[in-house]
Amino acid sequence: MKPNQQLSEEVRSETLFLIPARGGSKGIPGKNIKPLAGKPLIYYAIDVARELSTDEHICVSTDDEGIKSAVEDYNMHVPFMRPTALATDQSGTYEVLLHAINFYKEQGKNYKILVLLQPTSPFRTSQQVKEALSMFSFDLDMVVSVTESKNNPYYNLFEEDQNGFLHKSKEGAYTRRQDCPSVYAYNGAIYVINVSSLVQMPLHQFTKIKKYEMDERTSIDLDTLNDWKLAEILTDSYK
Question: Up-side HSE of residue 134: CA atoms within 13 Å toward CB?
Fold first, then answer.
């Protein structure tokens, strides 16, 4: 797919696709450039972004020279190296996003929309990102991808009280999970963020959020070695 077949020039010019890729992963060592079905993991995110925009509006934010080298081998320019202070286990996503936005602002590029594509969602598709973008409007803080949770606070999620007894997290006279209100979990695949909201507050303070629901397979987020093994099985099954 060519970029102009996906997004209008106006939308592309005001949208930054950000792919954060920190080195030093512990759950899956070197996961961002670890080959999945013969392709470094981060390439999946780059491919999705390239199907929607041009390289000019795609940014890989990394602190790691190995990741930088792998990205450049894929003919993608890495515009800056992320400061070490923003690449620790304690570093927050919010600061990483602001760092990228401010970098481009200093270059005279004032993006209005930020699309965050984490490398750990290799089964997310460009069509899904396009659909999430189509839901966005500037009266929102964010459109975020979710998957419906099998665990429900009205049914099988519990909290412990001061006496050590378990109680349902939310009260409700439901005897079957399917009768409970649907609940959703962020799956980490797609965040379409209003930059104006972002510069005012971190994501967890957003109140005007719309969901983009994804299926279980494309929602897979690679965090552990078991996740990786499942991804290998799935990629093999779709060859």
Answer: 9
- Per the listing, tokens 């992320």 go with 82
Whether residue 139 lies inside any domain: the answer is: yes
Q: How far from chain centre, in Å, is Cα 94?
A: 13
In a domain, 158, yes or no: no
Mean pLDDT of the chain, nearest integer: 91
The DSSP annotation for 61-79 comes to EES-HHHHHHHHHTT----
Domain containing 42: what range? 3-147+185-237
Q: Contact at 8 Å (CB) between 162 and 61?
A: no
Q: Return the pLDDT at 174.
A: 86
pLDDT per residue as tens digits for the range 133-182: 999 999 999 999 999 998 999 999 999 999 999 999 998 888 888 889 99
d(CA 129, CA 62): 22
Intra-chain end-to-end CA distance of the chain, in Å: 20
For residues 26 and 47, the answer to whether their CB atoms sit within 8 Å is no
| Domain annotation covers residue 69 | yes
